[in-house]
């Protein structure tokens, strides 16, 4: 019985706290097409940092192309229990807002290859097309230290909030509705 309680406690802590990561950004400026990394932490009310990454289909996506919309930028990994736990609610919101041209969801996988991410999506029947940050460069730009991390960006391309750890569907929906 003690063992079961211990396992439940560990899982609960992981779900509530998120998974810790250590983004390693490229030292060689020729290896990245990202903007210069900020020296300080990224916080609410900062301008969002623009970047360009390829999605799982190989299409280049530039974050600033979504300027003028509410952007939900979600950093995740397929091995992260809290990421997996929040995904169903986020996917429900993607479906709920699919006809709303003022809201866009940008899922960004950190540090994993395309094959791993494709297997994760296929296994769960998710049809999203996440961006691939295999070298964790964008995670470094945003100073992501744990996942999941959700960055909510307003229509003026300002960071409204940064939430590290599991996010409830209703909380994300409240943020979206407040920014509409």
Give an account of the 3D structure.
By secondary structure, this protein is an alpha/beta fold. The chain has a single domain (about 1-180), classed as Glutaredoxin, CATH 3.40.30. The chain is about 35% helix and about 20% strand. It contains 5 helices and 9 strands. The chain has helices at about 1-15, 80-95, 115-125, 135-140, 170-180; strands at about 20, 50-55, 60, 70-75, 105-110, 130-135, 145, 150-155, 160-165. It has a 5-stranded mixed sheet with strand order 6-5-4-8-9. Strands 1-7 form a two-stranded antiparallel ribbon. Strand 2 and strand 3 form a beta hairpin. The termini are far apart.
Low-confidence stretches: 4-17, 22-38
**Shape label:** globular
Oligomer: single chain
CATH class: Alpha Beta
**What distance separates the N and C termini?**
49 Å
The amount of helix comes to: 25-40%
> What is the chain-wise order of helices and strands?
HEEEEHEHEHEEEH
Strand content: 15-25%
Radius of gyration: 16 Å
Mean pLDDT comes to 84
The strand order across the widest sheet is 6-5-4-8-9
Derived from helix and strand composition plus strand pairing, the structural class reads alpha/beta
Number of domains: 1
- CATH fold name: Glutaredoxin
Q: What is the CATH architecture assignment? A: 3-Layer(aba) Sandwich
Total number of helices: 5
Topology:
Layout lengths: L1 H16 L1 E2 L31 E3 L5 E3 L7 E7 L4 H16 L6 E8 L3 H11 L6 E3 L3 H5 L4 E2 L1 E5 L5 E6 L4 H11 L1
Parallel strand pairs: 4-5, 5-6
Antiparallel strand pairs: 1-7, 2-3, 4-8, 8-9
Helix pairs in contact: 1-2, 2-5
